[in-house]
Amino acid sequence: MANKFIASIAAGGDAVRLQRATLVANTAKLAQEALINECRTKVQELDNALNNLLDLAPETTDSLRPAGNGFKPHQWVQQVQELKVARKKAVEHLDIAVGTYNDWFVELGEQIQTVRA
């Protein structure tokens, strides 16, 4: 019976190639998963920012100004537009990242899902 050292230096070319391919594949899979997490974080951040911007409720229960003092409709509309466009792009990036992951790193039938609109 051979020890680990002997087994490693006696390993055939196919075994060595498979081991190296597995290491490379695992590293690439982790990088793709990190990209997916970055994309999901970006979508969540944009959702939070949009949620905060759309909260026009009065700050106190006795306030008669639902949008608050100094509300600037034009600026508000621009910010809402910009956030919605940025979110759409972020979801598109997430869809692409998930699609790449599903194409390259999962077994058939085990695909992960993404966020929609």
How would you characterize the overall build of this protein?
- The structure is a single chain.
- α2 runs antiparallel to α3.
- It is rod-shaped, with a radius of gyration of 25 Å.
- 70% of the residues lie in helices and 0% in strands.
- With 117 residues, the chain is an all-alpha fold.
Question: Any descriptors?
Answer:
0% strand; single chain; 3 helices; 117 residues; 70% helix; mainly alpha
Shape: rod-shaped
Task: Estimate the mean pLDDT confidence.
Answer: 84
Strand content: under 5%
Q: With helices defined by DSSP (H or I, 4 residues minimum), what is the helix count?
A: 3
Instruction: Tell me about the largest β-sheet.
Output: none
Structural class, from helix and strand content?
mainly alpha
Estimated radius of gyration: 25 Å
Number of strands: 0
| Uncertain regions spanning at least 5 consecutive residues | none
Tell me roughly what share of residues is in helical segments: over 70%
- The arrangement of helices and strands along the chain is HHH
Oligomer description: single chain
Ends: how far apart?
59 Å
